[in-house]
Amino acid sequence: MADDKKSEEELAGIHTLQARKNFPLSCGIPFPELIHSLFQVKLACLETNHRLGYLPEHVYAPCREAIREGLDGKLDGYFDVSLFQGGAGTSLNMTVNEVTANRALQISGKPVGQWDSIHPILHVNLHQSTNDVVPTAGRVAAIALVIRLERAVLSLQEALQRKESQFENIVKPGRTQFQEAFPITLGREFSAYASAVARDRWRISKLIERLREVNLGGTAIGTGALAPRKYIFQVVDELKQITGFPLARFENLVDGTQNADVPVEVHGILTALAVTLIKISGDLRLMSSGPEHGFGEISLPEVQAGSSIMPGKVNPVIPEFVTGCSFRVTANHQMLTSAAAMGSLELNPFGLVIIYGLLESCTFLLSSVEQLTSCVDGIEARIGKLSSIGRSDSIVTHVIAGKFGYERAGQICRTALAAGEKVEKNVVKAGLISEAELDTLLSPENILKLGF
Q1: Please, are residues 153 and 426 in contact by the beta-carbon 8 Å criterion?
Q2: Active site residue 108
Q3: Catalytic residue of the set 165, 307, 387, 434
């Protein structure tokens, strides 16, 4: 923060103090991306109003400097108002207005609260409403996080593809309903994970197109009341230049102010990613389980001790972390769905709840994907364990069914088990199939080819 900035209470105005009292939830500072985007919106409005002659230089210059400090994160400490609040986000918008105005007064060498010079509503909030500022800032913040999330998902996809290549010739049992099924390669399993994540990445890449329309300029209910026409047509272009994002004004600003179906659609795609992450994490936990008396097919990176009482125990903490975060994302989807449905007439009073859920899910997924990528990079196949189960009785039986048929293969398996022999040895000893032919049937090349 600037050296000459006074105490936090001196920059907080009455609206901020009332919000702290009325919404006493200790949720910490809101998402930094949201604070940053709020100042970006305020800067776009300030620049547009100044260019059109609505703000004199002695107001514009210090306000611009104060907003720049906000963009640099120097004012983050003042944003301790819970996002779970009544009033559709008015308290959050007023915090931005009051902190900006008071900081601008300090920059001008004037005492905090001397609002006849620089006023939080008449100047900082000029031609704006909470109802267009906060939803716009929420979408800008979401776009910033979505861009980072897409890059992270791409990195996860590439990590899985590397494992697909590394493990392509390692045969192991496939499993259905937790029972051994036809053989598969470990690489083929990771190829399926990579394909699923690739779909998630493609869907996420389309989210900017869904989020790019904003209702800035619509003021209170989307009619642009109390805002000049030139301002309405210029302010989103100004914000587009500031953010570098392909923003556009809602064609129907009333629609953009009333309805919150787009965040629900966007979050549905985030939920799909969460489902993919839960599936992959669950499989990694299973395949690494044991390791002696479980599946024990792979080993995960050892990142921390697994027990305070059992020495040497290592837990799959990264897949568990990812799963827990993904649970929160799926829960947020229910919250968003309910909040979006509760809009009434010209406004949804739960807009900040929607923004909170959307940004939190993006943040949880980003951290999860980054951690899972690191985990995947460190996965190793346990060759000894895999080689011992790759020719198990059930696997051999499934494979020879193609040669002998369903009933005959089952009878061969039962005969071998009754004799206390491995199916592999029994079928070769009985002259039903040569060892070379069995090796061919169980080879990675045969298993990887599609069909027969």
Answers
A1: no
A2: no
A3: 307
